[in-house]
Design goal:
This protein has 333 residues and is α/β, with parallel strands linked by helices. It contains 14 helices and 10 strands. α3 crosses α14, α5 packs across α6 and α6 crosses α11. The N terminus and C terminus are likely disordered.
Length: 333
């Protein structure tokens, strides 16, 4: 009995000190400071993943120069170029021919298996033209490693009714466009022709909703919604969508802002059910200041280094960096 009392006397000061500390925190909660973690203090830029557009390849000089700008703005950035084949020629072919659902699944697997990307707390991503909606598909469907900020340039988020992307001698491209206009909704075309899988004609939504292999799904336009898609988009810190002022390649160009174009009638994103009913999380993201509508001059994929550098400076960098919530393009909606 005496021994137990002595032990109690020894630990009593500890309890008194703990009680005093708790009273102090409760009385002055602002004095409490959470323990910092290594991520809080790490100024290493997050890795950046780049997905190129139709007719391009991961090894193209233009794309590599974009990666160099990323590293210039945020030194030490690991830049990863999405590729669907290690052969640049085959990678280009895959931008015209292939099953987009399978292609995104491959990218999900590749990024999840990457020794650095898979261990990063998050990544940033930039998609050019169709690479933008494919990265959005990645975010909605797997998102590991998770994307912090997504930037898209001239992407076809609301689909296309036409695509004028072929040069006179590009027979690979011309063959793809002939198929696009010939038998868009056949199962063969929808599982093999890339642009057909984000074709969307507002005058024939019935066929689109029934047969679309890709876009109708990631835009959650069918009756049964995938809640994970909306949750994953809403988790983004920023989604920056650039439209090209003079874009005549992507038709309609307003697709880059999720606008609905039906003849001469244009419906802004915020006036659409996709937004008001928050089918893919854009309204939730917008309400926290993370949805950005931006314009850049010029034709499709004519982007100045200044625009790229400003974007990478504002939205990319270390994990704890906070981007400006000023949306310079939103007044147009």
């Amino acid at each position: 009995m005496f021994t137990n009392k002595m032990a109690l006397l020894h630990i009593l000061p500890v309890f008194l000190t703990l009680a005093s500390a708790i009273r102090s925190v409760l009385a002055n909660p602002t004095n409490f400071k959470p323990i910092s973690t290594p991520d809080d203090e790490d100024d290493t830029p997050l890795p950046v993943v780049i997905w190129h557009g139709l007719g391009d390849t991961f090894s193209a000089d233009g794309l590599q120069s974009v990666g160099a700008l990323v590293e210039k703005v945020n030194p030490g950035t690991l830049v990863y170029y999405v590729r669907l084949d290690e052969s640049p020629s085959n990678d280009r072919t895959a931008t015209f021919y292939g099953n987009v659902t399978e292609q995104i699944a491959k990218v999900c697997d590749d990024l999840a298996a990457h020794p650095i990307l898979s261990t990063a707390p998050a990544i940033d991503a930039v998609g050019f033209s169709q690479g933008g909606q494919f990265l959005r598909g990645y975010i909605e469907r797997c998102n590991f490693p998770p994307v912090r900020s997504l930037v898209t340039f001239g992407s076809q988020h609301n689909g296309i009714v036409d695509y004028k992307a072929c040069s006179a001698a590009d027979w690979l491209c011309k063959g793809a466009m002939a198929l696009l206009h010939g038998n868009t909704w056949s199962s063969w075309v929808q599982s093999r022709l890339v642009p057909a899988q984000y074709f969307r004609d507002p005058k024939d939504l019935e066929s689109y909703l029934e047969y679309s292999n890709f876009l109708a799904d990631i835009n959650n336009e069918r009756e049964v919604k995938n809640e994970t898609y909306a949750k994953n988009i809403a988790k983004l810190e920023n989604f920056i969508m650039y439209i090209f002022e003079n874009d005549t390649t992507v038709i309609p160009k307003e697709t880059s802002w999720f606008e609905e174009v039906n003849g001469t009638e244009i419906t802004p994103l915020r006036a659409r059910k996709l937004y008001s009913e928050d089918w893919i999380g854009l309204r939730a993201l917008d309400r926290k200041g993370g949805l950005h509508f931006k314009t850049t001059p010029g034709e499709h994929m004519q982007i100045s280094d200044d625009i790229l550098e400003d974007t990478f400076s504002e939205f990319f960098g270390p994990l704890k960096k906070t981007a400006s919530k000023d949306d310079k393009g939103s007044e147009e909606l």
